[in-house]
User: Fold this.
Amino acid sequence: MPRIFDNIELKLLPSLVSTLKLSHKAEFCVGYFNLRGWKQLLPYIEGWNGSEENQCKLLIRMNETSPEEDLKNMLSFSNSETTIDRQQLVKFKHKLAMQLREQLTYGTPTHQDEMALRQLVSQLKAKKLVVKLFIKHRKSLGRAKYDI
Assistant:
């Protein structure tokens, strides 16, 4: 039977930490990436060497548009089908970077926030953490994963 983590009675973080302590690799799929939440997992990935069998893979789902635009497009009569090109991919990467930047400006960024960001960059460079974007294409065009 699956466990449901509601963060009221059953907290996700302690379960993730206890699992990561015993693991040599991990794969996560998230709908939203929050640096302040992720920094709590960074120490458990730090000891990994970045090889295929000793790294963390993170898949982040990104919409092409805002939820409001998605709804508007779904309900419109002229539902255009377009493919993703390199320019759009660059736009998505920029959008993700801006979302991370905005997260750091909520409240007052702390020294720990800055250190977490530096550690995240270091882990990305060392391939201890591999991040991909999952972009849902419109209509029948399917889905695709893109390295960042």
